[in-house]
Amino acid sequence: MNSIQGILIACSVTAAILCSIIFRTKLAIRLLAIILCATAIVFVLVPDLTTVIARRLGVGRGTDLLLYVSLIAGVHVVLHLYRRTRELERRITEQIRASALRDAEEFGRSH
């Protein structure tokens, strides 16, 4: 094992541990983090495996396959975060409206 493999494995394990700590109540996400970590470690230790898998899927190189998968995952994450942001904005708007109505009613009673 060369030094970059050790660094990549350490980063992968660290990411899985941090994900497990952050999402401690969500078992599915924790399991996904463990699976991704294990997959990353296998690909780091056996880099030619990505090329074998890519060729079976009709992609020329393993690097290209990893790029395609990363792009798809990145788009999924961005869309998920966008949906969550919109939901939070909607909740905040509802809370502000409710607070404004409550304040207006209290102001109307006092005058």
Residue share in β-strands: under 5%
Q: What's the number of structural domains?
A: 2
| Biggest sheet character | none
Helix and strand content put the structural class at: mainly alpha
Q: What is the average of the pLDDT values? A: 90
Q: Which labels suit this protein?
A:
111 residues; mainly alpha; 2 domains; 0% strand; elongated
How would you describe this protein?
The structure is a single chain. The chain is mostly helical and 111 residues long. The protein folds into two domains: 1-46; 60-111. It contains four helices and no strands. The longest helix has 49 residues, at 62-110. The mean pLDDT is 90.
Summary, kept brief:
The protein is 87% helix and 0% strand.
Topology of helices and strands:
Elements: H1 3-22, H2 27-45, H3 48-56, H4 62-110
Helix pairs in contact: 1-2, 3-4
